[in-house]
Amino acid sequence: MLPILVPLGTAAVLMLAPKRPAPQRWISLAGSFLLLASALLVFVRVNDAGVQVLQIGGWPAPFGITIVADLLAAMLVVAVGIVGLAVAGVSFAGVDPRREAFGYHPLIQILMMGVAGAFLTGDLFNLYVWFEVMLVASFVLMALHRTRAQVEAAYKYVTINLIASSIFLTALGLLYGATGTLNMADLARVWPTISSPGVDTVLAVLFLIAFSIKAGLFPLFFWLPASYHTPPAAVGAAFAGLLTKVGVYALIRVFTLLFHGAPPALFMLLLGMSTATMVIGLVAALNERDFRRVLSFNLIGHIGYTTASLSLMTPAALAGAIFYVLHHIVVITNLFLVSGVLLRLRRTTDISGLGGIYRDQPVFAMLAMVPIFSLAGVPPLSGFLGKLAILEGAFAARAYWVGGLVLVVGLLTLLSMGRTWADSFWGPAAEPAYFAAPGMPLLAAIALLSVLTLAMTIGAQPLFELTSRTAEQLLHREDYVRAVLGATR
Amino acid sequence: MEVLLALASGILYAAGVYLMLRRRLAQLIIGLGLLSNGTNLLIFTAGGLTRANPPVVPEGAVVLVQPYADPVPQALVLTAIVIGFGLLAFSLVLAHRVHATVGTDDVDEIGREP
């Protein structure tokens, strides 16, 4: 519960606090520290004592709203805390004053609250509400600007997300009509007893479409590259790191808890969508010449990795997927911040306008090298380990062609990120070159995330054991159900 | 009654999708509104319809008397209406902003470079 209340409290304080930048930034940073601390607290308790449950208002499980933290949710909330800290820290480097005056800091906190709530809730309708909280905050952050490109991106983003929400809500209505409950644990219990094949498939596909739009899976991802490169780097970093992951999380949750008995065709559909996402995302990334658009398409392609692993539904594949999600949150957030520094250094993120960064800013280049090569999957960084885990999962599940595709797409990623690195950091500086200082807060945030990536590399063994346990926990639904509904059932 | 409401919700969906495929921003927003109302109606219908039996425990009784209306879909619809209203208001403001910035409400024109 704490990880939801902390950002809410911070946002409230921020709205009441003086509107000058300095206090707003410090309060935001302090709030982010508290969020991370509370997330770690929850994680330690879940790790020691198993699934933690809170029945809001004291209503027993299937009737009230339940907050549930299992290992997956707890780990992801910790990741939210880390991203929140990085984004709050970056604001010290300067935010556009108009933005700051219109409630930039409270909105970031509310975004964090929405994401944490979506991870922690144990009720599907409540998940919808958290989605909306998160979306409204992201809408406003997206639309705070007035340039043509940003306005265009904002209305596309808003429309497609509202459609996804409508589909999600439709699915919820039908689900309630079919089962009479929306508590996830209760649904997992009731579902096998009353589902007829038709209802099962219709609902699964509706959920699949709604969450795939959020996660950015083929063929539903076109809104993402059209919008993610327009907001300022810190906002882009928070969006890229967290929002699509909520879609992935929701897919993992409903597929492990509800639709595990769905017809194989459904999993084939998810697998097909995921693999198409991987290939198309990376091919499109190779075709882009703007640093941030390259990142957007890489983001999409790598979402495909995680959902492809999910669709195999074996413990090894699922563990790989979770490891990859964690790695990807850290790395992609970092890369969007790197793009912010590039924008400051050269006033553009078009790769042809970059170049020569390595010579001017060796420290920054070294820091940026970690996430770039980690995303590219260069051993021994965490991206390589994540891909290896997914590959092992795919081969263990005898899905050899998935494994092969993972390898091919890995190669494409290496090509895309390697070329980006070579052109923008090593290549000759464009004339006339524009030089500026990168700003210490940005560098600090990038350093934090890069160190974290290195830590995930060095500590991969314990982390992988953790994700394996998480996968086991996800596939043993009985524990989750028992923790939520109590021993009486 | 169920058939009637199902039809109504279907018509709202169809009209909403049709309007969203149009080129004007205003029509897009009206379409979104219709779509969300169609969804609300669908939740209400799928949750089961009961006539004139509010879920209130009568005086002297301890439990509800069958049959009674399920209060959960009503709560869900209420929440969805509030959220939908907020989002509709936001998208109206956004459309206004788009119009003020770009000077057109034609969806095809917005993406075009001037």
Radius of gyration of chain A: 21 Å
| Mean pLDDT score of chain B | 81
Strand order of the largest sheet of chain A: 1-2
Shape of chain B: elongated
Shape of chain A: globular
Calculate the terminal CA-CA distance of chain B, rounded to whole Å: 53 Å
Number of strands of chain A: 2
> What would you call the structural class of chain A?
mainly alpha
Q: Which SSEs are present, and which pair or pack?
A:
The complex is a heterodimer of chains A (489) and B (114).
Chain A: H1 2-16, H2 21-49, E1 52-55, E2 66-69, H3 71-90, H4 97-101, H5 104-120, H6 124-143, H7 148-179, H8 184-194, H9 197-215, H10 223-227, H11 233-257, H12 264-286, H13 291-312, H14 315-346, H15 357-360, H16 362-376, H17 382-396, H18 400-426, H19 440-458, H20 460-475, H21 477-485
Antiparallel strand pairs in A: 1-2
Helix pairs in contact in A: 1-2, 1-5, 2-3, 3-5, 3-11, 3-14, 3-19, 5-6, 5-11, 6-7, 7-9, 8-21, 9-11, 11-13, 11-14, 12-13, 12-18, 13-14, 13-17, 13-18, 14-16, 14-17, 14-19, 14-20, 16-18, 16-19, 17-18
Chain B: H1 2-20, H2 25-46, H3 71-102, H4 107-111
Helix pairs in contact in B: 1-2, 2-3
Kindly describe this structure.
- The complex is a heterodimer of chains A (489) and B (114).
- Chain A is an all-alpha fold and 489 residues long.
- Chain A has one domain.
- In chain A, 78% of the residues lie in helices and 2% in strands.
- In chain A, α11 runs parallel beside α13 and α14 packs antiparallel against α17.
- Chain A is globular and about 65 Å long.
- Chain A starts with a helix and ends with a helix.
- With 114 residues, chain B is mostly helical.
- Helix content of chain B is 68%, strand content 0%.
- The chains are: A mainly alpha (489), B mainly alpha (114).
- Chains A and B meet through α6 and α7 of A and α2 and α3 of B.
